[in-house]
Amino acid sequence: MPAAVRWLALFVVISTAIAATRRSEGADPQPYTVTLKPTGDSALDAALQGSSTLISLQKSAPVAGFALTERARQDAARFETALNSFGYYKAKVSTTIAEHRLDDPGLAAVIDSAPAKPPLQVAVSFDLGPRFKLGSVTVSTKVPPDIPPQLDLIPGQPAMAAQILAGQGRLLDALRSDGYPLAKVPVPIATLHPDQNLLDVDFRPDAGPKADIGPIDFSGLKHMNESFVRKRLLLHQGDEFSPQAIERARTDLSSIGVFSVVRAVPASALDADGQLPIKFDLTERPLHAVDAGVAYSTDLGINFSAGWHDRNLFGNAEQLNLTASYQAGGDAIKRPGYAAGAQFLKPDFLRRDQTLEIDLNAIKQSLQAYDQTALLEKIAINRKLSQYWTASLGLSGEQESILQEGVTQHYNLVGIPASLKYDSTNNLLDPTQGIRALLSITPTYSIGTPSAAFLIGQLAGSTYLDVFNDGRSILALRGLVGQVAGAGIFAVPADQRFYAGGSATVRGYRYQTLGPQFPDRIPSGGNAISTGTVELRQRILSSYGVVGFMDVGQVSANGAPFAGNWHAGAGVGARYYTPIGPIRLDFAVPLNKLPGGDSFEVYIGIGQAF
Q1: Of 38, 81, 121, 552, which has the maximum CB count within 10 A?
Q2: CATH code, 288-606
Q3: Burial 194-219 (b: 16+ CB within 10 A, else e)
Q4: What DSSP string runs through 149-189?
Q5: CATH superfamily of 212-284
Q6: Average pLDDT over residues 4-14
């Protein structure tokens, strides 16, 4: 055979062998799917899935054949740990790859020859066996007698790791609450009794020495005066150590509005006096803040607002708030109007939890009911009585000109505003639970001509019911009752009378149009008001929501609350939830339309209607 022919035949044989070898090689990396057979316990299923690297690394770290088998073996150990943590100490894990067990001698060849498509099927099933229960639960080291009951672990309950570790945490919290700041509670010693399906646990805490609070230091203060912070602090050297007291002090410092972060860091050892030093790490918020807002309604038009705020004017958490707004375009106003104001707040005035408030506001507005140009002053003491209750007492002044029905009146008013407020809600702009209530009484005297003395009283409240306890279906209720006593309706300045209609009272009606009117249908206002609202708020997905509502209200002249003609409005709305609060869009119609009134009203703003 010629040499050339022999070389050609050899080349063909080698090429064929290489091709055959390539056809028999498996994919690298090897795609696969994972199926975990449900156990019937959703929490356990979630724990098993969370412990699986077959699942967590499936896309981020693909592997070849041998590594896939090793990953499956490692997962089997992780699954056993998860099963043990739920009390299944006799559970068995069975894993197959392409229907071959991990100990099958032929599995390697199956994986090596497997193509990329379809991916290999990894299946895991679980034989749970009996669930172990707690046997004896003991505390074998010396601790105060009130400590062991805090474990709250009962023999006979499922021997779940999470509950045992929770008992360990309760034991540590109880020791620290009893004044043992350096207490340690190691992981308990567990003893299995497979023949009885029981698990004994023995806790061996080290209480350490009992101690009081030692020296208290602050770090991070830049503009705040340490003397104010130290005086404000609810914690003092010599107090018995208490994590709850430390947390109350930390929360209280956070509440004054100056700090963005407040951390209380106890020392890791007692000092020479046997006390535990504590350090508060403080991060101050920026001194100044600027905000801007816009809202719209068909009755009041578009409102632009802006504010500038100093959070720490003199180093003692004093606040200076400057605000301005411009209103234009609605069918309840005749000409654009403005408001500008300045507010000064001094916390802990004369005593703790007592704030001095000084307000100065200028207003010019031209409403359908009246035109007003006014300068308002107020000084008040606001005192926090408890977590939910706040009382206020002050002195107010107002110099204003009111034009109504072609007649201009000039007033000089002096008032003594007093109020009692209750607020247990969980959010300022979007409450889902709690109650808000406000009782206000303002004796007022009009100096000069005309002169009059009258008393304005109001009781307003709202409550929020979480229908399914999930924060997504909220029934919100609102009510208002008010009365002006001591003077006839026209002896009271027009801006001090009651009006209804608009987003704050009865939606669907133009602002201030409900109640007594002059013959030309211009609102005259009344001396008594009653309003109420029912609103259902339903959240959809994570960022959207819908609402349905009905408002009712009445205003009477020279009468009493509930004595006037009632009107009702109803509507629907949409919400888009943002980190600063929901954006609100409400559409409302009057159920008994006023002569010449609007057929509907639209309201757009930030935050819920109430």
Answers
A1: 552
A2: 2.40.160.50
A3: eeebbbbbebebebeebbbbbebeee
A4: GGG---TTSB--HHHHHHHHHHHHHHHHHTT-TT-B-PPPE
A5: membrane protein fhac (3.10.20.310)
A6: 38
Helices and strands in the chain: count of H runs, count of E runs: 8, 27
C-alpha–C-alpha distance, residues 529 and 67, integer Å: 78
- CA trace torsion 398, 403, 407, 413 (10° rounding): -10
Whether the per-residue pLDDT at 483 is higher than 90: the answer is: yes
**Same fold flag, 212-284 and 288-606:** no
pLDDT tens-place string over residues 453-480: 999 999 999 999 999 999 999 999 999 9
**Which residues does 379 contact at the CB level (< 8 Å), separation at least 6?**
356, 357, 358, 359, 394, 395, 396
**pLDDT band, very low/low/confident/very high, at 26 (cuts 50, 70, 90):** low
Fold for the domain defined by 133-203: Ubiquitin-like (UB roll) (3.10.20)
- State if pTM tops 0.90: no
Tokens of 417: 């505003």
Cα–Cα distance for residue pair 481/531, rounded to 1 Å? 7
For the chain, give percent helix, strand, coil, nearest 5. 20, 45, 35
Task: Give CA–CA dist 312/48, Å, rounded.
Answer: 52
Q: Where are the domains of the chain?
A: 22-127, 133-203, 212-284, 288-606
Look up residue 20 and give its two tokens: 């055959």
